[in-house]
Design goal:
Blueprint lengths: L8 E4 L7 E6 L6 H12 L8 E6 L3 E4 L5 E4 L15 H20 L7 E6 L1 H13 L5 E5 L8 H6 L8 E7 L7 H13 L4 E6 L8 H14 L14
Parallel strand pairs: 2-3, 2-6, 6-7, 7-8, 8-9
Antiparallel strand pairs: 1-3, 4-5
Length: 240
């Protein structure tokens, strides 16, 4: 596994005072620059805000089992792309520690944990849900676009023991997705809702494993709801 210092990233800086941060995780085989450019192509501009720094890290290159062990930029290894598969927890937890360093970097600059939002596309969405619901339950929220958790995910097991308020989840899925089936995303949403998570789930007809304009507009509105511009608090967060 690559060291934390090897986790490269690209950033869209806020146009005004920086009071919040968003960490956006790409899908398997992509990069931070790749998904940043993909979003820009759809929106015809960067995913940018007056007060939010948007961070697009790149997953380290590592052997990926669904590609017969070939090297790929992935957040974790998985045995197969299926809801019924077991999780490779050693791989997931190792990356959670690396991404925690990225979160702590933002905290060290004075950004409160409840002013940090996590999310991603496909595998990046799954990674964000592990990171949020197992290790950072005090962030502002989490989103998963065309993503899912395994049927017996450790996330579900750990949330059964939690009584605190949990970050809100925003999910979006194409109903024509043949790589990550829409029912996997729906089932993930249903289970998390049953465990006390406030959730929203949107589906787009005839949309495959991709991003689209309507989805990104809804996501931007949701991000601004979780991280409003009128934040005036001077709350400090403790580095975990």
């Amino acid at each position: 596994m690559a060291s934390p210092s090897a986790l490269s990233r690209c950033v869209v800086s806020p146009t005004g005072k920086h009071t919040a941060s968003l960490i956006f995780l790409h899908g398997s085989g992509d990069s931070g620059q790749g998904i940043k450019s993909w979003i820009r192509e759809i929106l015809k501009q960067d995913l940018a805000f007056e007060h939010i720094k948007v961070i697009f890290p790149t997953a380290p290159s590592q052997p990926y089992s669904p590609m017969m062990g070939e090297m790929s930029n992935v957040w974790f290894d998985r045995y197969k792309i299926s809801m019924d598969s077991c999780e490779n927890l050693e791989s997931v937890d190792s990356m959670c520690q690396i991404l925690t360093n990225l979160i702590n970097d933002e905290v060290k600059t004075g950004i409160a944990k409840n002013r940090i939002l996590l999310g991603g596309f496909s595998m990046g969405g799954a990674m964000a849900m592990h990171l949020t619901y197992r290790f950072h339950r005090d962030v502002a929220g989490v989103f998963a676009l065309s993503g899912f958790l395994n049927k017996d995910s450790v996330v579900y097991k750990e949330l059964k023991e939690v009584k605190c308020r949990l970050p809100e989840l925003f999910q979006w899925h194409g109903n024509a997705d043949t790589l990550v089936l829409p029912q996997w995303g729906e089932e993930t949403n249903k289970i998390l809702k049953s465990l006390g998570v406030t959730t929203t789930f949107h589906s787009t007809p005839n949309m495959y494993h991709e991003l689209n304009l309507r989805e990104l507009h809804h996501l931007k509105a949701w991000i601004l709801k979780q991280l409003p511009t009128d934040y005036t608090g001077a709350q400090k967060s403790q580095v975990l």
